[in-house]
Amino acid sequence: MRVSCHGIAFKAGGTVQNRLLMSAMATIAIIASASAASAQAARGFDGFYVGAHGSYGKVDNTGSADVEGALGGIHAGYNYVNGSLLVGGEADYDWSDVSYSLNDPLGGLGGKLSIDLNYVATVRGRLGWVYQSALFYATAGYAWSEVEVALSIPGLGRDSASVDLEGPVAGGGVEYKFSNAISGRLEGLHYWGGNDDIGEGEDLETNVIRAGLTYHLP
After folding, report:
1. DSSP line for 165-213
2. Mean pLDDT in the chain?
3. Which of 64, 71, 89, 125 is most buried, taking the most CB atoms under 10 A from its CB?
4. Is the Cβ–Cβ distance between 119 and 93 less than 8 Å?
């Protein structure tokens, strides 16, 4: 049996022309299927979302003091996806266990000096690229935090003060969709915080590594 198309005859039964035609059609079908799957995955990141995360943070420019510890919090935001490009905004709040303590800070008088980072909150924009079920993104915005400094000396009592710090924050990360509604993320953030009310050193800077789970609203 022969089939003619634009003057070219294809003979049923496994001719070279038939095999080439079928291979081309199969390749086109695979590419179309992959493009559709990628577009569907990208749309899966679109819309509102909420989630929770855990972090580890370390404050730099504190001299010999190791000011570090765990953080945990919540995040929420909105993504707009156009093709594979994602643009969004996110806000988060972290309760902090980042702290430092020093015994007998004045030498010979006893007592204790403690520095505690109470919370960190940010508002950030996100710009990313979606590939299949993964999102690769950069993020930047502004951060607010509160640091409590306390000094206690036997016989003299205890005194403390809270200092509000703020400054820019930037970083990046990767997010992966485990299902239509759930994704996991790993990101790194760098915070710049002013030190007008703490010591005379350089500006305080904090590095945070964060892992979290996100629920994408339908």
Report:
1. EEEEEEEEEEEEESSSSEEEEEEEEEEEE--TTS-SSSPEEEEEEEEEE
2. 79
3. 71
4. yes
CA dist 172 and 141 (Å) reads 12
Taking CA atoms, 66 is separated from 61, 162, 164, 202, 206, in Å, by 10, 19, 20, 16, 12
Using a 10 angstrom Cβ sphere, with 0-12 exposed, 13-18 middle and 19 or more buried, the burial of residue 53 is: buried
Tell me, what's the pLDDT at 16? 56
Distance CA 115, CA 150 (A): 7
What is the rounded distance in angstroms from the CA atom of residue 72 to the CA atom of residue 57? 10
Residue pLDDT, tens place only, 130-170: 999 999 999 999 999 988 888 877 777 677 778 888 999 99
Question: Once rounded to an integer, what is the mean pLDDT over residues 3-19?
Answer: 50
- For residue 188 the two structure tokens come to 């790194």
Question: Is the pLDDT reported for residue 4 higher than 60?
Answer: no
Structural contact between residues 22 and 15, judged by C-beta atoms closer than 8 angstroms: no
Instruction: Dump pLDDT digits (tens) for 114-129.
Output: 788 889 999 999 999 9
Residues in the chain: 218
d(CA 98, CA 193): 15
- For residue 97, give the nearest of 54, 52, 142, 159 by alpha carbon: 54
Nearest to 71 by CA among 88, 89, 59, 87: 59
Q: How far is CA 144 from CA 77, 121, 129, 156, 193, in A?
A: 18, 5, 28, 33, 8
